[in-house]
Specification:
This protein is of the alpha+beta class. It is built from 24 helices and 20 strands. It is a multi-pass membrane protein.
Length: about 625
Amino acid sequence: MNMQKFILGRKNHITIVSAILIIIAFVSKLGFENEQIAIWALVIASILGVSPIAIQAYQALKVKVVSIDVLVTIAVIGAFIVRNYEESAIVTFLFLFGAYLEQRTLNKTRSAIKELTQMAPESALKQVENGEFEEVEIDEVDVGDILLVKTGAKIPVDGTVLTGEGHINEASITGEAVPVSKKKDSGVYAGTILENGTIQITADRVGEDTTFGKIIELVEEAQDSKSEAERFIDRFSKYYTPAVLVLSFIVWIFSRDIELAITILVLGCPGALVIGVPVSNVAGIGNGARHGVLLKGSEVISDFSRLDTMVFDKTGTLTIGNPKVADKEIYADNVYEVLGYLASVEKESDHPLAKAVVEYIGDIKSYTVEKTDVVKGGGIVAHVEGHKVAVGNVALMEQENILLSEKARADIARFEKNGNSLVLTSVDGELKALMGIRDQIRPGVKDDLKKLKKLGVKNLVVLSGDNQGTVDLVARELGLTEAHGHMLPEDKATYIKELQEKGQIVAFVGDGVNDSPSLALAQIGIAMGNGTDVAIETSDVVLMNSDFSRLPHALGLTKATANNMLQNIIIAVGVVLVLLASVFFSEWMNMSIGMLVHEVSILVVILNGMRLLRYKLRK
């Protein structure tokens, strides 16, 4: 076992020695016409070269796998038996040298992921009891600790700036190299770099819970997962390799030409086919990681590249998710009391509309809220100071049997026409207030949606719990195909099921807990990176920093990756067919030339896959 490890650990050294021995053999034979030295040099080169290949073949056979190493080992032994030492030495050298180049180029395709892991902070300056800052291991930092970050240092955790100002390079999270200004109360991410300034931060998320930790975890998981194409090739190789063995045996039986049979073994090796698909996937995932797009596995790439319909949640996805109160109507004399009840109830919720209402009302007398009942997709019903207060949409008012006057209905229609989301407040069965809340459409979303259409997305649909008027306004402004309002989470999921039953491949883009069922159900769930942990966990694609402009890049990248995968399969299969045909229908083909072409084909598919690392969406 130690000998096996010793030999396998020195494959590169064996490759160099083999090359030197082959050169000595040719110089001796052609320059000094010394046949004996040439033969001995080639024999030693063959034995040295085949040793690591034979060990790998033995290890494969132990787990009942007939690998490429098995084919090459048999071919080299056969060439050795028929005393074709030149062929055996050159074939082993080319195989080992090809494996070295293959590993070298594969490492480059993984460089994006390696760069990520190397960016992970290892230590932090933590405030201790006497107020001083001491350098500690990153594992010793807990939530709530105060940390000091100096110019040029990595931010060790996700946190909030307590004091100081500076500019931070957030390329590892967002893909953007332009430094971002940070001051008191600004959020910062682990793994980003403070380019200038000095800041103190409070640790909000540490270790694997940080945004950066999740990026590394998700990308590593993505690398480990296999697509349907890879699983097919694994199955194909399992049967194909023994089939090559059988073919060479049949050729030997009928022709009694051992060299021809051995040549078929070498030429039939499916190396480029086995490596072609994984290298495309790893390069595609690496490119995504560099550009703020996390693709959770190669299966996602396959589905995403064939997308028909993209469905969007509205708030926080097509819009900024920071709505403001734009219009209001009060139907009561005791205005401050009603607003106090409303603010007290809305403080119980973390919904964006609730936050907008609380922010708009500002400082006002608070009341004790009791018996809070959250009505899914409707709002909140609670008891405040002995009064029953309902806060929510029109559907909630109807459910609570609140009478809406003609004026109230006219106000509701007007607010909806202006694109407002509605928050109605009733106290003891009477409508007391109506607020219209509007969210701003994300800058640049319209252009991004046009790019998605150019990339072949046929249908762009928005689904929202908001009223139909608001949703229609957004759809008209952005040029969407369909718009559906008054949608509960289960309604969104049902709509996606209906699209899938029609044979469409559907992506859903959202950011909230209520989006999780739809994200999980769609073939491709796309979460905005600043969304909830549940949404990110259940999704297939994450857009870091909630940057919507990454979406066209993500779709273009998956299409390029799928095409690249197909190109690699065609190259690999084409080369094997040409080589095997050349054996039977040409005079020039031999084992050494075949092995050279075989190794070149492996490098071609790897280099073709590596092109994806430089992929950028055309303007």
